[in-house]
Structures
1.
Amino acid sequence: MLADYFRISLRNLRKRKVRSFLTILGILIGIVSVVGLISIGQGMQHAINEEFKTVGQDRIIIKPGGEGFTGSTPVTAEFSTEKLYGHDLDVVKNSKGVYKAIGVIIDTGDVEFDNKIKYNNLFGVPIDSYSTGFIKTIDFFIIEDGREFEPGDKYKAIVGYRTAKELFDKEIRTGNKIIIKGQEFKVIGIQKKTGSPVHDSMVRIPLEVARELLGKEDKEFTTIFAKVQKGLNPLDVAESIKKELRNDHGVKEGEEDFTVTSSVQLMEGFNNILNIVQIVLIGIAGISLFVGGIGIMNTMYTSVLQRRKEIGIMKSIGAKNSDIMMIFLIESGILGIIGGVIGVILGISLSKGVELIAFSMGVELLKAYISAPLIIGALVFSFLIGAVSGLMPARQAAKLQPVDALRGF
């Protein structure tokens, strides 16, 4: 019996190809939007989480400026009116649960190579053996070609992968000379490609030289990085650092002139923002699905009016109300599922296209993540949209009396 329902429904849809296509189009657009947006959003979340796993969730970042300061990310901390100094680094190093900690200078500046000048991220890092040992534990700073800094290096530089390969017309190689804010540096290392725009576009130079070129005060840092002792909770260690810095700065809780953030908190923050953005975008895409559902309802109402005699004949030869209702429900469900299948295919293609365009532009965080639950969910949802939209027209068809239906219009 169910096979007969499907056979009748498909025959009726084939008779009205143009109308069926236009009806399917409404659902199709909505599913394309939902699948494309969700896959890109999930891909970004997956990529960001993988990057945090690469860096390690045992990292803590200390920046100048309180929690309310808008530019309190590691890269923009130099814009804060507050500052961090050597004694802050000592406090962090001596805080309970801290394994190692280093202070760095992060800023932007002009970099010249092959008679071309570009503005780039500059990282001033300490080059003593203690600090170098810390830096070597971070995947973002791994050297692909050349060597790491050694004590005594001065006007030497290590460049990120993108800076070396893409920033200038000519590729930067180890042994080349670059000019940073008017000072010549010899490139001693090229970092491996990480996919992070910040780290792939950096130029690392010795800390003291960075202070001199960037006009920073003696023992001033823009950011302090700390590593948690193995087996300890980074959130607990972060709270310990906050407490010690509050005591050192003589400020109360909630009045801090610094910000302490763990990698776990950063990851959660990014995920929360992405979730909110996805919800908003999916809500907008949901309007298309709503409109598509109204289109199916309109098509099915029209179909009921046009097929009154057919309904009357079926009822006169023994078709029950449930049979008539099932035929129309399946018909509207098929409209939804066809729109869903095509929408899923186009949505995946769209998200993959965005990924390829982003990759060609050097942005590797924008990736499409296609999962089985996403595909199955989109198909089930599209079928339900179709079936629910056809429910009222199906009930109307089922309630028609055979005599009234056979009279026609």
2.
Amino acid sequence: MTRLDLGRLEGLIDEFPSVRLLVVGDLVLDEYVWGDVDRISPEAPVPVVHVRDETVMLGGAANAVRNVVALGGSVDCCALIGDDAAGLKLAELLKDLGVDPGGLIQVEGRPTTRKTRVIAQTQQIVRFDRETFDPPPPEVGRSLLRAIERFAPRANGVVVEDYGKGVLSRRLAVAAMRCFRAANLPVTVDPKADLAPYRGAALLKPNLRETEALSGVTIRNRDDLARAVARLRRRIGGGAVVVTRGPDGMTLFESDASGVDVPTAAREVFDVQGAGDTAIAALALALRAGASLFEAAVIANAASGVVVGKVGTATASADEVKSLLPAALAAARCSG
């Protein structure tokens, strides 16, 4: 196991401002309707929500962008938005973060992915999704690829957030990976459905459910997990795999075929929404700052611990992550 040192981990976080990542993938506009419930509707057995506030936040790949910025890194984003109010809002929120809008391709007639959550007394009551899974027209894909080719040379690494919304068609993903290889950029992928286009990725970050779905292996025990991950690693050409396991932390598969556990500190969980985006942002930043995979996982566990303690799609700042590092470090040392 890598020898862990708090000062070194803090120093790695201090290096985040020197890292620039390129995020490619499916953007989501997360909408929240906040309210209170004190009665059931006389019209149907459903709660009546008295609305107090409505907010919008960056979700999906855009939340990974937001987390990179919150952690102190620099970032570019190449993605599609619709020619609708939600697309304009996404572009506005990204520009507010200082993200160059030149990587955003507006597509006429394509709805921007929106997830609207109704929350009362901190509990999510219902969610409405507005989205399409259709791939973009070929000319739109070519425009997005040109944007990727324009921004790739100034990046230190790439994060691909493939939520399966149709943006990253197999043809486009393969072409993008070819571009990243030409630029000698390590690619970290958060996949949902198809691994074939991502052969050559340096790191794959699925959760347990995604690991089962992608590998076709039902995971009941550690041997099943190792067998499932071995399949994933073969499909991407031998890159590392980090399986996120919620309150159990992460398991790393790099040189050790059986995997190395990185437990996380127990935290009161209010909302797991967006924790995966936080984890992949922290992992990619830490690795590009010079961390070992084990060190990056400890930092990512601390960052995820910050966001699950907040309601809604949240971020973790560098200072917040540092405040949880001692607990994350102590938990990780238990794996030894």
3.
Amino acid sequence: MNLQQLKAQHRAKAREARALYHKITDDTPEAEARKIERDFNAIMLDVDELRDRIEDVEDRAAGDRPDPRRPNEDAEGRGVDLGGNSEHRAAFCNWLRAPKSDRTRQELMEAERRTASSLTDAAGGYLVPEVIMQPIFARARDVNPFRSVVRVVDVQSGDVRFPLSESDADSGWVGETDTRTATDEPTLVSKTPTFGVCYSYVKMTEELAQDALIDVGAWFQTEAGRALGEAEMNAIISGNGTDKPSGFLNVAPESGDDGSRTADALKYIPTGDASALGSDAGDKLLDLYYDLKSQYRANATWLMNSSTAAAVRKLKNGSGDYLWADSLQSGQPPRLLGHPVAIAEGMPDIGADEHPIAFGDWNQGYILAKRGDLFVTVDNNITTPGLIKLYIRHRIGGCVYDENAVRVLKCAVS
């Protein structure tokens, strides 16, 4: 399919989506509105897929020309100031205040044509300006600590694979003039992230949108960042790989040694108690710590939620000293056995067969892949009169990269 055909298909799908949500009025029964909303979301997945395919074709045709979707970078990725982002931001914020206005929609589309992509429309979604998008992702990092510790990569295709060495290369010793015999070459395996559209609905009242004293752009940054951060965090932990990242707990952790477990299965250390951390929890943390190989331990970070942290913070060693040490420097994370602790509220609570604590080199253990930018659509009171619902979305993927780089503690006898 050529570029013109892709664009025609994209426009047709966008029109279909727009016509669908215009079917809903304030009198539409809630059950029917919910069904139409689900159908709308399904069509929007097709719209996003077509947009990505169009962008791929245009990228290949553009060669070394600067990417028009990234107005702050030149052809070599260096930051440049094209002066158009402030215009885009102003048009975007005006549209948030009056999403039903033909004038604000037209102004935003004109700003996008000058600074970003002309592929979007009222159904396909508008590109969030860079000066708003970056604070959104910064806020997402605050909510989702995995963004700060896992490997985050930008990709141009959903069909991407990351090679991983099995570390099984052979070696030997010889004298200076002895014959060298061939050694085994290392085995490479391919790790493939599973992708999906990470989306959230952010709601605001029409009164809030119209209030001139409210910085609607700053409000949107905070709310969108929180919503996306929570969705990403839950996917990285327990995503099932179907239209979303594969979480590191998606394949049940096993107790076997490295090299003997199911692919992508982390190793767990049992607490010795069926539903709790056990009476010797401090020793179990030490077992978990030293079971991780030294090359991973050097850059390792602890992950747990606040409830688990409250229990771990009370643990002491044989000398009566707390294992947990609060940082003396503002903004720095606390440390447990000398390593930083990140609080991820999506981690499981302490309970039977749960994995409430994880420890490892997350940069080696997990890959979060991002594709494309952040888009937003206003669905015009699709189910709730008086509220404006902002449908925000971007495409991400994820997978366990090196299952030997992370260990988890499991509430189990063995």
4.
Amino acid sequence: MLSLTRPLVPDRRPSRAMVSLVLTLFVFAASLISLTSGAAGLGLTDLLAAFLGEGLSPRDQVVLYDIRLPRLALGLAVGAALAVCGTLLQGLFRNPLADPGIVGVSAGAGLGAVLAIVLGGLLPIGIASGLGPSLVSLAAGFGGWIATLLLYRIATSGKRTDVALMLLAGIALSALAGAATGVLTYVADDRQLRDLTFWSMGSLAGATWTKLAVTLPLIGVTLAVAPRLARGLNALALGEAQAAHMGVDVQRLKRLAILCAAAGTGAAVAVSGGIGFVGLVVPHLLRQAQGPDHRRLIPHAALLGAGLLVLADVVSRTIVAPAELPIGILTALFGAPVFLWMLLHNSLLRGR
């Protein structure tokens, strides 16, 4: 007699510990490549000497501690945040094609950044000089939060949040933000247009310890709260009614998932610009490799997203050295074909 407690087909997927180990080693290797790649000539031997306490030349100290380390830390944080936010939204919408930009946060943050770049010169001199290079980041974060608040206002009635209405509202707000961005781009001068173009394509070139200190709290909260939503998202995959019968507070789960996605995406866009497809591709790849359990997906998405974005950043600053290719172009070149394959794959499955 067959046992009902054991699967009829053995599970050939790798264990959680094995996947965690492989992804951790991947992030470590990507970090070493990032720290030792570039035009400055700082190699692995110099890096080991620095960590062993041996002296570096003043130039190498500036390269390592003021340029490459903050850039690496920001790349890890942004990649992890975008991947985890994509995982949360795909679980919330029960749709593998969901992306952090779907709720309008990226568009709102982009509009805030464009406002700062184009109209920042109209601020009083004391405010503009006091904020300095943080002005664009703060404006982008503020724009992302405004978009989130508008979405909640539109999609929430009483204590219920309509996910479908939030999805449609996010599309509408993205279109509105895009129109406003187009108007501001039209009135921008040549210098502002160059800044807008580079920022909209995404880059980690402006990484500093100050930016990291401003961004890390929001990203840290997102990465800390997201794993606590895993069981609820697993139950939600069966439907809202079934999840409620299993004891899940569906409305609270929706609110927390959207707030985490808004906070993480807004913070990431504020410091790196428009980097797309990380939140779309990373959860999909992991889901194909290890299954849909969010208890595994969320932490592994953070690791894979961090490692992939760091490697993409290495390619972006070495492939056309000494110039730098915007990192958003690379993620789009990789992510867009994967996205098209996902669309075709899903349409074929529905046609069966």
